[in-house]
Amino acid sequence: MGNSYAGQLKTTRFEEVLHNSIEASLRSNSLVPRPVFSQLYLEAEQQLSALEGGSRADNEDEEEEGEGALEPTCPPNPYQMHPPPEGCCTTDGFCQAGKDLRLVSISSEPIDVPAGFLLVGAKSPSLPDHLLVCAVDRRFLPDDNGHNALLGFSGNCVGCGKKGFCYFTEFSNHINLKLTTQPKKQKHLKYYLVRNAQGALTKGPLICWKGSEFRSRQTAASTGSSSVFPPAESSGPLATFSGEPIPGTTPSIPMGAQQAGAASEHPSLTAAVGPAVLNGKDSPKHQQLVKNDPSAMPRPSALGILSNSGPPKKRHKGWSPESPSTTDGGYSQGGGNRAKHESAGMSCMPQVGLVGPAPVTFPVVASGEPVSVPDNLLKICKAKPVIFKGHGNFPYLCGNLNDVVVSPLLYTCYQNSQSISRAYEQYGASTIQPISEEMQLLLTVYYLVQLAADQVPLMEDLEQIFLRSWRESHLTEIRQYQQPQPCPPAPSAVAPVTSAQLPWLAGLAASSCNDSVHIIECTYSLAEGLSEMFRLLVEGKLAKTNYVVIVRACRSPAIDSCVAVTGKYQARILSESLLTPAEYQKEVNYELVTGKVDSLGAFFSTLCPEGDIDILLDKFHQENQGHIPSSITASSVTKSASLDVGGAPACTSYNLEPHHIRPFQLAVAQKLLSHVCSIADSSTQNLDLGSFEKVDFLICIPPSEVTYQQTLFHVWHSGVLLELGLEKEHMTKQRVEQYVLKLDAEAQTKFKSFLQNSFQNPHTLFVLIHDHAHWDLVSSAVHNLYSQSDPAVGLVDRLLNCREVKEAPNIVTLHVTSFPYALQTQHTLISPYNEIHWPASYSHGVDLYPENKKYFGLSEFIESTLSGHSLPLLRYDSSFEAMVTALGKRFPRLHSAVIRTFVLVQHYAAAMMAVSGLSQMKDYTSVETLEITQNLINSPKQCPCGHGLMVLLRVPCSPLAAVAYERLAHVRARLALEEHFEIILGNPSSGITIGKHFVKQLKTWQKIEDAEWRPQTYLELEGLPCILIFSGMDPHGESLPRSLRYCDLRLINSSCLVRTALEQELGLAAYFVSNEVPLEKGARNEPLESDAEKLSSTDNEDEELVTEGSISEKRSPVKRERSRSHDSASSSLSSKASSSAPCGESSAQPVAPSQGERARSPQSCGPSEETRAPGDRQRPHASRGPPPVISRRSPGPTPQPDSGLRTGQRSVQASVTVSSSQLSSSGSSSSSMTPAAGTLVLQASQCSMSKACRQPPIVFLPKLVYDMVTATDSSGLPKAASLLPSHSVMWASSFRPLLSKTMTSTEQSLYYRQWTVPRPSHMDYGNRAEGRVDSFHPRRLLLSGPPQIGKTGAYLQFLSILSRMLIRLTEVDVYDEEEININLREESDWHYLQLSDPWPDLELFKKLPFDYIIHDPKYEDASLICSHLQSIKSEDRGMSRKPEELYVRRQTARMRLSKYAAYNTYHHCEQCHQYMGFHPRYQLYESTLHAFAFSYSMLGEEIQLHFIIPKSKEHHFVFSQPGGQLESMRLPLVTDKSHEYIKSPTFTPTTGRHEHGLFNLYHAMDGASHLHVLVVKEYEMAIYKKYWPNHIMLVLPSIFNSAGVGAAHFLIKELSYHNLELERNRQEELGIKPQDIWPFIVISDDSCVMWNVVDVDCGGERSRELSWSERNVSLKYIMQHIEASPNITHYALIGMRKWSSKTGSSEVREPFSRCHVHDFLILNVDLTQNVQYNQNRFMCDDVDFNLRVHSAGLLLCRFNRFSVMKKQIAVGGHRSFHITSKVSDNAAAVVPAQYICAPDSKHTFLAAPAQLLLEKFFQHHSHRFFPLSLKNHSHPVLSVDCYLNLGSQISVCYVSSRPHSLNISCSDFMFSGLLLYLCDSFVGASFLKKFHFLKGATLCVICQDRNSLRQTVVRLELEDEWQFRLRDEFQTANAKEDRPLFFLTGRHI
């Protein structure tokens, strides 16, 4: 019913029996009905093409071949014998091939009887004494009781051996029975034949036919178990798909969503969709199979499961008993093979008899006689009735089968509604019954009764009604199942409808509908009802009836029913909807080619007062030849070009916008990029972005020349090719064409070179963009079947889904489409996480991406139709629809597309004539068309340059488009309008051709110099007045210019109701509207000009009803309520068509609803509005000269609301005619215009272009589509959105929830992914069959967004930012800061002067003094360390920064990564896979945990460390035995000279940087063997192990989880010394001296990324000139150089410079310095045995350690010619410490001043280590404790044994209390403060007495607790010189359990 598959029920006797048993089980409360029965017998309906001739006898040779033969004939009419084919034998007793069949002649001959066949004797009336021998399939013969014979026939001729007769009629012809009555097997097959003892055939027992005429349907239910799988014809193309039954049928396909059966397209398909009949010899084993294995019936979806499917009316000739493959579910569902639709060129067989859909017959169990279809049914009815099979048995039809259409859609719908939702089965819902057949039928009647006269029934609606009804009736039960229930609930108490009540209730329901639904009740079978219906139709008694419901419900519990659609309008639409698009085109072609349309053309040519339009046109042409027609001032057109030059005002509205990226496009591009990054970031290794250096791309588009040129244009102008570095500055068009691929026959070679290119360039990332991706989804399997007919079939699948694309690691596929639904099925290849949807512009009322343009798409168009808005932009044309309907009745055999096209072309032609001055033609067009034409012709005159508007006329069928083009061009030529507007035929396969005159105009407007230039895209037609006839079954993404004012979609295939198709057509009008116009209610879509502006306009605007409508709407005191139907009969039509004055372009103003419409609106407008408007208009006119015009809005006769055809229409047209005649008389030549009016023209005329940017086009739709689009469901979702999403998919179940308006795009995607499945012809169909659960392709993305919104720009922008990111991935931000405090360097005699030394000379170096000053720029905010009395001006030190600026403001430089860089986890390349542990040889994470303990006196306890050692790294360690206790880490010897490895183990302490830390040193070490240990905190162990499975981890004890970097350094150093001792002991036993064990380790930061060396040319020792260059080297080079230094073991700490681009020659002049080293240290653990890192420190611990090492008398050496680059890493490290309040939940940052407090106070405690609070406090607020020291650099603070950063404003002087330590001379200093931090026993009172302090200097003592604070004061005798007060005691703001630090401050006396 409005949907289209040609699936059809083939019920058989056998199935009937089964059906009863199922129904019994469904109705009973005890059995749980099995879902397998839900769709038992749907099989594909056969569409038998009415091919006359070609009878089977001609094909004998083929038929012998069995499999290959095809049979194109139709069964002969049973009542009238066809004359036998010429030349065949007609002798009685012989077959047509001339072979003898008489029993007496052949009784002793051997006869080949196939398995399952029996020989029987037939009686011929002309040979009463003879029996003719026949072989008949035993299943079609009765058993001994006369029962169980399958209906139909299957037999072979034993004479000539011809096999496979499917009809007894046909067989009786072949054996020359020469019957006068209808041939019946019951009458003529009389005896079984048996062989006697001698082997001769003799007459056997009678065949017992009793009881077969009327069969009841009760038979033992046990028959069900013996059902068998039907074998399919493997010869048909369906064998390809027969792998899997389709999940679920698609009952809900809207009209036209599928084809009506395959027969007309491809004969072998016909065969394959036919039901297969089992052979006797196969059946036992099949039966056994089903009996023993219940799982053999997999799901309700396996459609053809119950086989014995009855005698096929037309079966594949070559069907053989030996082909037991399963019937393919896909095709058996009603022509599921979209294969043919997807490409028109697939059929191999010409379709003859192409009138309407090919006739269909039902080989179903008949009860009684077949029903004969009357001969001239179509002639009488004016439409082919569409009969929907419902419940039960359907009789044979015979006779004039061409004039009816039979469809199983309703049957399928019933079946699906019977299947109980699986959702409830899991609750064991045995008592929830499906909706009963009686109820289904009753609901169907209710539904039909409430349909309006112009509505067409939709299967989906009916399905929803059934679903709702079922839910309501079982609501309580469903709820009970949803809560756990101990006992089953009682069955519903509502009394069910019985079959006896059914006819009465149906009649009652239909009684209210004025006979639009007629109920026929039958007694015995539907055959009576159908005969009755045909009789009533022929007698004309059903003229008012749209639906006839035939029901047989009296004889048995089960009912038979069918519904016939007899309404002319409905029947036509439904029968046409059963055609696939391909069939539709064929049908139209056929009608055009055979000249069937001539009668229509002839009819139209008479539609004019003169009786012949062409005569009228010729007359007009002759009259006006030689001079321009007065009605049109062509001068304005010709003048336009010269205006610019001549200085006359030029048009300012015409500006082609520059290409720039809009915020939305940028946002989408960034979303795409982040999806690509997330694919790369996932652990699946599917995309290794780090390995790509550049981006390349290929854009695949449908084969449309205009789209191709448009895409080239976008690519060219976006600059993406330059940005990606693919092309140089001056690229040619040919070069750009390399990147865009048109998917046509030539595509394959270009695509191959793309693949080859991707293969050859593994380091280029190729992005394959599939634009308009919903276009060709045909599976390549279908192409394999049809390759000879159309090479383009399945091209997308063959190219984009080929193995090379799927497997290439460097190809990412991006599907881009506005209609992604067909790519969102259960089998899709695209992960839901890889979908990117265009973002909504508003979220919670906030404009997310402010733009100066507003997108106007489908939802906005629909919104404009709602009342309360300004005039609707979606309209329909009721007079056009009325004419189409009338002509549909007059020409019932023509397809409505043909009629609609002819009517519309006629309307345009008449309108052109009317505007040109033939005003008598006004009555022969519709108001809408007249408005369009007027504005088209007049708009150029409103603009000084002649800019006009575009009218898009959509004619999907190309042949019809050509007809329309020729006709309109002819009329235009006769009216001499060729210069005024262009008519363009837009065909996907060809480019645009337009006349020279118009090309010249466009070049002038667009300022194009190129003489060869021609427009190649529709966008380049900006401003050209033209009608664009846009053909092609689907638009292919062509964009239209802003000058598009009317989008005329009245000819779109309205029966093709599929969401994609509908939205695709409406997407043509999508538009960007300038946002400057305030979008209030009135002005939302159209700007309303101010009244003042209106007053100044010319007098001709009085016909522009538009303006009146809008003004009166503004002024009217009565609020106008608009009715829902906007047929715009009221559109603005300039009545003064013949006048020469330029007519205001009416589409600029909204179109007013016509009077008729207003009258129909529920609340009709009061007279106030009606009478005021004309008055308002007339006042201004009176003052201006030309006479006022009778307004078209004078009140006309008011028709009744909702009268079917609007009578208001005529009155409108009448008043138009009046006014126009008045106007014509007022003067027709331009000279009659008064000068005053003439001057006004220029002021008032407004170029159509200026309005174009402010308002979207007006769209005209067919009424059916209009209703579908504007109707909404309860949630406000347009009905169109809930249609089947695409032709190539089907619903998975009818028990699906409805879509809802509130769903986002993502939720819609998930909905379709759950509820739709692809058809077998869809390229994703086989995806799940691969058996992988993860059936998504990892490198596939889907971008969807509304049509024309800018997706191309977005993905081109994405390519740019992707390329930038890849370049960015090969670059790194490194700190680039000058060294600080250079000007404080010591005198020159302290320099190392041997500039060319590669290594430091130990003796020379010892003489160098130590430079205490910190030069590392990261310590810019640290306290200066004084080494002698310096005169530092306070301004030399910068103001201290805010803490948060410290990171932000550090300077960085972007560097290209060299081949020696260190990497983080995002780098994966072939070489370091093994190093990273992702190598197949290593099991991932195969590593062992080893404890390693050593005691350390300072901590007073044993330290337990854990090593995680991967198997691959165990050789670096010594174990007690393999897999035993870890003993030590192997160390090399000092004497080793090997260059194969790095001697020093590297330790990298890290926190919070498992992904971003640079731990991959493979390339940095240039592949050399090295030992690298990551030092991690216990709580981070697992995550580091996951990211770095092949790295050795040293796990710190849990007490250090909150410690700083000092703790890590401390433990690394202690562990290394302990290990050194172990190794010395171990190797001493091997005879190696302890001092020969290598004592160095490297402590490296986790952000060291690259290393450099400076090559210096000293140019002579003493020369001041120094030339040097810096280059990147490997860490291996640097380490081996340093490790090779002579006397290296004498140095305690070696480091290098930090890199800076600002490094001057002074810094690299001397190769070595004795100063602080940071970041990358080479530490001698032997020499520094007694110097410890402070394990409590968080910051500056390296400076503190450097000072300790120096004061211990050890050497620190910095290699100035080596430098390390440090990467800026925004996460982890010291920034991972956040200081927050311990109590409150608010995350407000705590300021450093709050880090300390008075002891015992109520201060809020902080959750942070005490040491961190101390250091942070001193960094920012130390001036509170040392006020005298602030900016007082000559009086520093004395800091004993430690360096604490007191902030950049305070200087410190470091002294060590250890005996024999090196300290600076302090005798000259007067200190401004003293800092004693956790001082030990080395600090004594005598030690402190050596130092001198200023009066008022301050002291700060810091201890672990208050007790030790007091003891320290006493021990150091501090009270002698320092004064303390009670209130000077402080503590860090920690709770007691966090062990705060305590301070005591005092003043020097």
Overview of this protein structure:
The chain has 1949 residues and is of the alpha/beta class. Strands 38, 39, 42, 43, 44, 45, 46, 47, 48, 49, 50 and 51 form a twelve-stranded mixed β-sheet that branches. It has an eight-stranded mixed β-sheet with strand order 36-56-55-57-58-60-59-53. A six-stranded parallel β-sheet has the order 18-17-19-20-34-21, sandwiched between helices. The longest helix is centred in the C-terminal third of the chain and has 24 residues, at 1605-1628. It is elongated, with a radius of gyration of 46 Å. Residues 2-14, 29-79, 211-367, 484-493, 629-648, 1077-1244 and 1433-1447 have low confidence and may be disordered.
**Biggest sheet, open or closed, and with what strands and sense?**
12 strands, mixed
Mean pLDDT equals 77
Q: What class, by secondary structure content?
A: alpha/beta
Shape annotation = elongated
Alpha-carbon distance between the two ends? 107 Å
**Estimated share of beta-strand residues:** 15-25%
- Rg over CA atoms, rounded to whole Å, is 46 Å
The unreliable regions are 2-14, 29-79, 211-367, 484-493, 629-648, 1077-1244, 1433-1447
| Count of discrete alpha- or pi-helical segments spanning 4 or more residues | 58
Biased composition (Low complexity): 1128-1148, 1209-1232
Domain GREB1-like second: 305-606
Subcellular location: Membrane
Organism: Canis lupus familiaris (Dog)
